[in-house]
Amino acid sequence: MLVGLISDTHGLIRAEALAALAGVELILHAGDVGSFAVLRELQGLAPVHAVVGNTDDPMLGLPPQVSLTLGGLSIYMSHGHETGSPTPDNLIRRYSADVIIYGHTHKPLIATRGKTLIVNPGAAGARRFNLQPSVGLLRIDDGAASAEIIELTT
Length: 154
Hints:
Elements: E1 2-6, H1 15-21, E2 26-29, H2 36-43, E3 48-50, E4 65-70, E5 73-78, H3 88-94, E6 99-101, E7 109-113, E8 116-120, E9 134-141, E10 144-151
Parallel strand pairs: 1-2, 2-3, 5-6, 6-8
Antiparallel strand pairs: 1-9, 4-5, 7-8, 9-10
């Protein structure tokens, strides 16, 4: 199974992000979506699960977290801001899952703690904090998960 990971769009959906996520079976948006338009664009590619970020309008009606089982693995996603400073260590202490996905920091990251894969796809929206925009891909095969970050150049 191939899952698209995106976060911190802040109302901007880049054509390059859509191209990078083309062909995924599901999209997980880790918050700071910014607008219904972003969700509509993503839903044109695959079903979308999204969580609320610290800058999202409550009118979007997004949940604070999403828990799923995909390919036999437990997946937990939140924006991460609720931990104060979202780091792999803070997240693993607070949440129990095979895969933890978060956003908020705008910094792409793939880490493991024990058997848990922790992924921040980075920020796909407007360039901020001198960081390259990015998205991620999560692959689930035979009960194992792996991830990659795709930098967006435009």
